[in-house]
Amino acid sequence: MSGDRTACLTLDLENDWYFDDPEYDHLTFEYIDDYIAQMNRLDVPVTFFVVGKTIERYPEVIDKLDTELDSEFHLHSYQHDTSKSYDFRTEIRKGKEAFESHFGYEPEGYRAPQGNIDPAEFAILEAEGFDFDSSIFPSFRPGIYSNLDKPLAPYCPEGTDDLVEVPIAATPGTRIPVCQSYLKLLGRPYLSYLKYGPLPDPLVFNTHLQDFYQTDSHDQLGQPKQSIMKRNLDGSLELFAEAVERIRARGYEFGTMTDVIEAHAPSCTELTYDSTEVASRRSPKPACQQHEQPETTNGD
Questions:
Q1: Higher pLDDT residue, 287 or 55?
Q2: At residue 150, does pLDDT exceed 60?
Q3: Which of 68, 150, 183, 195 is positioned for an S-S bond with 138, CB 3.0–4.6 A?
Q4: Is the separation of the CB atoms in 136 and 123 below 8 Å?
């Protein structure tokens, strides 16, 4: 990539809202052709983090996305169990098996359901052969995660030697995630921020099919989640297209997660924070031999 700044569009490919009822099984897949056409019109590569069970149930959809889009694939757990009531290593191995059975190679990257990953699980990912993880929202979600002390740039999690964590983008200072669910929720004022406000580099923009397309599964959500997730849903694709163009206008070049790793992982970054959290200094140590330092300005 030749751009000064790197952006990456990611999509978590999973069952809609994690419902296990066959009546609501992957209903957004009805819109796959529309999604492919939209991404091709925008001329952006897509990095998919795909659930193992989704690969097993819908291999033809996976192949269609693989052949008709500029894309790459990584793992998004085996069953997308948000309760975390499973053994993590077993879950990872089942996911890897489903992934390799379809693609013929092991996944290089991982993303945890809801971005909910425990510190000890990074070492397991590294031991299982993953090169990178992209689970961390450097933000706060009550009951799910509190990551206000985490860097906005790629870093090496404590307890690992080579694994790189590539955080999902959040706005410096305010720590609002840069993803489609928040773009829908906040609407055009957020588009204005994307045009003028400070943004991280790299910028990993997260999406789901249910962020773009409404199905009967949306009506099964409880409140207030249902109202939140339906907000601006009819105009979600238009908002997204405008966001892509505004990010491009800020000097970002869109690539895959592989491009992000190649551009940003050679030297792990030890961030020092000023009031806008955009100051940084390069570590003199080799890649991935230095861990994140606690942030003091926005701690819990």
A1: 55
A2: yes
A3: 150
A4: no
pLDDT in tens, 58-112: 999 999 999 999 999 999 999 998 888 889 999 999 999 999 999 999 999 999 9
CB 164 within 8 A of CB 74: no
Q: Is 18:43 a contact under the CB 8 Å cutoff?
A: no
Of 131, 133, 271, the residue nearest 200 (C-alpha): 271
Mean pLDDT computed over every residue of the chain: 88
* Token couple for 281: 């200094």
Structure tokens at 110: 């991982």
For the chain, where are the alpha helices, taking DSSP H only? 32-42, 52-57, 59-68, 88-103, 119-127, 180-186, 188-196, 225-230, 236-249, 257-264
* Strand, helix or coil for residue 12: strand
Q: Are 110 and 130 in contact (CB under 8 A)?
A: yes
User: Rounded to two decimals, what is the model's pTM?
Assistant: 0.87
Asked whether 173 and 210 are in contact (CB, 8 A), the reply is no
In the chain, the N- to C-terminal Cα span, in Å, equals: 37
